[in-house]
Amino acid sequence: MGRSALEGKRLLVMRSHRKQDDFLELLKDTSSEVLHRPILDIKSLENSEKIKKQISNFDEFDIAIFVSMHAANFAIGWLDRYWPMLPLGIDYFAIGRQTASATKKFGLSVLCPSVNVTSDGLLSMQELQDVKSKKVIIFRGSTGQDTLKHELILRGAEVEYCNLYQRVLNNGQKESILKELPTIDCMIAHSGELLESLGVWDDVEKFAEGNKFSVLVPSERVAEIAVKLGYSSVVVAKSALPEVMLTALDKIFSST
To answer: Which of 152, 2, 162 is nearest to 68 (CA)?
Structure first.
């Protein structure tokens, strides 16, 4: 697929740094100018007694869910320390291919939604329809949407969060983002928390100096947050899959 529509465009990506970012890799081939400004730092919760207890009792769970690549990486680190051989009988799920790939160290068979890479996509999977009386552990950060937990509880599951890390605002990156706003063509926000960290549009607008850039998000849920914060020109990709986000970017600039 040609990427001429993105040639010379200044694209601001705000999501946190990760060892392997397939989306940023795809952008390298677009002849665009990519500004990666991770506004949130990821800090592990290493000394949590609650985490130690949950990992020690990991064999009591029927289902384990990794909601992000960071969650998968931290969870695998904990499990490797406490469980050289993982207990049998646990079904593993992840939101997204990159998250699932982070579990390869243990050779896990991890199921994930193929298209709708969100909590809703995970909940639509046939394997999670009948979870009555199942014990579920959700590996995640200390904040995030509660949709997944609430719906699984409604289906009869017993659900625990295992909060493995926290997201901390990087003020230096935020300042850098604000300085870039007058000249960017598109801001790419993979979560509502990223936009919330930047601030409401009423506070951000003066830094943009009249620049009417697009805001690309991966789901209707994130779009709702963007609109509530006051952002306009919000474009919703069909999913958070890297190639789908890239296609959405193409369409933004192909139509201008």
So the answer is: 162
